[in-house]
Amino acid sequence: MAEKVLVIGSGPAGFTAAIYAARAELSPFMFEGFQAGGSPGGQLMTTTEVENFPGFPDGGISGPELMDRMRKQALDFGTRSVMEDVTSVDLSQRPFKVTTSTQTVEAHSLIISTGATAKRLWLDAENDFWSKGMSACAVCDGALPPYRNKELIVIGGGDTACEEAQFLTKFASKVYLVHRRDELRASKIMGQRTLANPKIEVIWNHNLVDVKGDGWVETAVLENTVDGSKKELSCSGIFYGIGHKPNTGFLEGQIATDETGYIEPLQAGSTATSVEGVFACGDVVDQTYRQAITAAGSGCAAALDAERWLSEQGIE
Ligand code: NDP
Description:
Elements: E1 3-8, H1 12-23, E2 29-31, E3 49-50, E4 61-62, H2 63-76, E5 80-82, E6 86-90, E7 96-100, E8 104-112, E9 116-118, H3 125-129, E10 134-135, H4 138-141, E11 151-155, H5 159-168, E12 174-178, H6 188-196, E13 200-203, E14 206-213, E15 217-224, E16 230-234, E17 237-240, E18 244-246, E19 278-280, H7 292-312
Parallel strand pairs: 1-2, 1-8, 2-5, 8-19, 10-17, 11-12, 11-17, 12-13
Antiparallel strand pairs: 3-4, 6-7, 7-8, 9-18, 14-15, 15-16
The structure holds NADPH dihydro-nicotinamide-adenine-dinucleotide phosphate.
């Protein structure tokens, strides 16, 4: 028998959708994927303290613990979950078919919350220093004590990198923006603000090629993209701002996305997609806010939209 609601993806958006769908007695089924480099739970699994999720006033909560709690809440209300990556979907007719390496499940409605993955450079040094001075989210990690009043580096030249650099100046003594070209990609206003900020120094035409330190980032090794020369820069943190990739490859073009692969909502303010009965929430539709709390909020909206749609179809 087809599931009423199948949730794909297990970050804050997916678990919130599952909690709402479970409490609406829709008995949701969830595929928890492995998108964050090997662990269900999404991008929060790779961050340390989360201090900006409301409700945790005394020092915040660790990313993995927050996800554990959301997961428990979803399962306690009756979500059935399987830790498998979805490899393909067939949205050509209802019920939809969702396939993993071991099974195909049919569902009347889908909630897609597969998130986005922050791009990395995949330097060997990331194995040693990720979450120990290296991060892809300044808003998540930048206010933590090890980064305060220290010299920090942001990699990239787009809006994300400029926004991260400006955000970090609230805490850091100085921020170096390391960009591989001699011109920013960021929007004009964002670029102007960045260049005008006295705490930001742009290092043009350089790539990060290695990181050194004793258990925490201490030195960035930069390579000049013009003449290949290398130099070392002392710092206590390195933040990647080189873009995100939405996890939508498994959809194989069956849902409308923008040119970079983010799912496009059918209309503003709704989680409905171009395929009736398929809803999307969290970072897989959001290039702007990308926060756990905004993802959770849109997960709630997706569950309410799915519930309403199922009811209109007479599937209760
Ligand atoms: P972008 O793709 O716009 O920029 C990525 C930046 O990272 C570029 O400067 C790029 O360099 C650099 N980069 C990419 N790969 C590498 C690499 N391997 N090594 C070194 N540098 C690399 O991504 P963003 O996340 O900045 O922005 C995505 C979209 O979201 C944009 O449309 C942006 O406008 C929007 N956005 C809007 C915000 C706002 O309005 N507040 C905030 C954040 C994002 P190069 O320039 O050489 O290609």
